Amino acid sequence: MTDPGLSSDDLAAIRTELAFQRNRLALDRTLMAVMRTSLALISFGFTLFSVFKSLAESSGLGSAFRDETPGRFGLALVIIGVLLLVAGLWSDMRVMSRLRARHRQLLGAPALAGVEPIPRSFVVVSAILLVLVGLVAFLVIVLRL
Hints:
Elements: H1 8-57, H2 69-106, H3 122-144
Helix pairs in contact: 1-2, 1-3, 2-3
């Protein structure tokens, strides 16, 4: 099932390029999994803080919820979520830079002439925006605690 117009070098180059693309997509999926976990931690921590803060401020149940432990636990979840996301971003950027460097080395081969460099990922931009959301949640909790 090979194309008669392609040499074995051309087929090897195509397979190599597809392997790079699979690795890039796998890195994106891994970062999206980290983002999903981080988002869950940040949102649950902020929700936990908000619920117990509103219960403490309500007139009927205020004395039962004066303890700041739920707020501190919510803050801890937000911090863990942001740190997890920063670690995931750092890992993704480190591995992606090595992948890009190796890809650039192989682009010099004649069989890979015309192949474009590995593009930047929009997943990284989304992760950076989520870090900013997490930092805003952190500041809101700290200022209201």
